[in-house]
Predict the structure.
Amino acid sequence: MPDLASPPVSVDDIRAAERLLQGVVRPTPLEYSRALSAKVGAEVFLKCENLQRAGSFKIRGAYTRMSRLSEEEKAHGVVAASAGNHAQGVALAAQLLGIRAHVFMPHGAPMPKISATKGYGAEIEFVGSTVDECLVAAHEFAAATGAVLIHPFDHPDIVAGQGTCGLEILEQCPDVRTVLVSAGGGGLLAGVAIAMHALRPDVRVVGVQAEEAAAYPVSLKAGRPVPLERMSTMADGIAVGRPGDVPFAVIEKLVDSVDTVSEASLSRALLFLLERAKLVVEPAGAAAVARLMDPSAPRLEGPVVAVLSGGNIDPLLMLRIIRHGMAAAGRYLTFAVRVPDRPGSLARLLIEVRHNRNTSSLSVDETEIVVDVETKGPEHREEVLGALRADGYRPLLR
């Protein structure tokens, strides 16, 4: 692990990366959110890295690292491990720099991320079910072929490149008081923290992880990176089982806290961003907003900047998350009712339904009807259930 007395990345490194990235990345918008500001009682701005080239912040670090390779290293090609966003960043950087790229991705990686990575010209190989397993394969590939491993977060050049997002935040919102950043391995969080600490040490920097894939809280408590035994989250972009040594050294020293959010909170945040901000964001990218919207979490001082780290989401996953988010917000109801299995019973339920006649708990003359209903909120949900009960049905919530 890097010596804490000698930070692995300085703000001068970030400024050098910023110069290197001119003409490669675009400064992403910082959008004021009236709806979020009203909800949390402080000014809230959204840093839209979901609108960056390749759909996330990852191109910042990948291009910074790869552009500094020697000609001999470039000739051997590069290898990466990623659930999708880093893969796209590496593939795009390789295309721009004329370098061969081989990427290991976990089975089950989102199809849009796979297609985009292929579209940029990278070769893809599927290994295991986590980024950590892919990293093992990438290390082996690098040792066998001479290809240079472009780590998704654990390298000073990667952290410096991601830190350019922090410089943009300070330029766009000079009076910022709190910055929320989602974290997997920690490259983006570390880079932003370095920029804030050097230029605005009074700014509070808060990391956010999915509670079912939160390696940082336990690692910070232990004082060293600790691998998780298991992870289970829809936020594949931040599902990393072990913090990187380089970002951990920074985060341990400079980040004020690393908070966690539930899967339901991620769904609600994604739905909120889609409906109210008109922004398509992946679950990992919505983690900062999920923390903002959590009524049980400590209030944050504004102005607050929430970084939307990525927008590469599978449409099918989006459909499921929208439904999940609506259910979590009390706006979607799924229940089953049992009715006599005879003509006319279904006609009274003129809504989306699914029949089930094969449940052992049903009597011979019954059928179960599973009903999906969009409701206006928790109160309306209870009204619907009450009306069904009053009409003689016994709705079984699903």
